[in-house]
Amino acid sequence: MDFVIQLPKSRRGNTALLLWQCAFTGFVIAKAMSETDALTVAKVFEESIYRRFEAPSLIRHDRDPRFMKLIQARSRSTLSYRPQANGQQERSVKTVTQTVNVYVEGPLQQDWDEIAERLVCEINNSHDMTRKETPFYLVHGWDAHTTLRAMTTSRGVGKQTEALAWRREINRQHQIALEMAKEYQATEKARRTQIHNDKLSRKEHAT
């Protein structure tokens, strides 16, 4: 688990993201928050993790462990000066953090918390090169399906019009998140390839 903090205040009053990732499947859960004290984090854990998956055998974190006493869970801290020891989690945090930070550069983008949660949805449905499946599939046993596009093609009046506007807004946010996830993953893949090639080149010169 990790925090993404010091984000601009959203329309819903949130200023931080709490991220959880399953070490086995890579499945990520994000929760936008307005408070990050120990009790609030423990309540979010119960709501977002425990109700769905029950208690994990171990929680790895690099934050203040006070809330661990509240939920009585085993934990393992990552040394603050060696965040790379928690590499898998850090990469997911980096993906969400950088994407959200780019999005909130616009002065009117006060729905970053909604975008971030949908970005995590797209990450969970992206093919994992290491695990050879999507995190969603590894957790649920089937591929995710969406009816958003079908939902947004109809027309309505009155309350139906309001519902249609809501569905279209949800679809817009999902599309933004999907494009952001694809763009970042392509950039990150190119960066890692370049690092790998540079290492090989240095070894060849050394020999």
Automatic annotation (TrEMBL):
Region of interest (Disordered), ranges: 187-207
Domain Integrase catalytic: 1-143
GO biological process, one term: DNA integration
Sample GO molecular function, one term: nucleic acid binding
Keyword check for Nucleotidyltransferase: yes
Family matches, as InterPro entries: Integrase_cat-core, Retrovirus_Pol_polyprotein, RNaseH-like_sf, RNaseH_sf
Keywords in alphabetical order: Nucleotidyltransferase, RNA-directed DNA polymerase, Transferase
UniProt keyword annotation of Ligase present: no
This protein's name: Reverse transcriptase
Lineage: Eukaryota, Sar, Stramenopiles, Oomycota, Peronosporomycetes
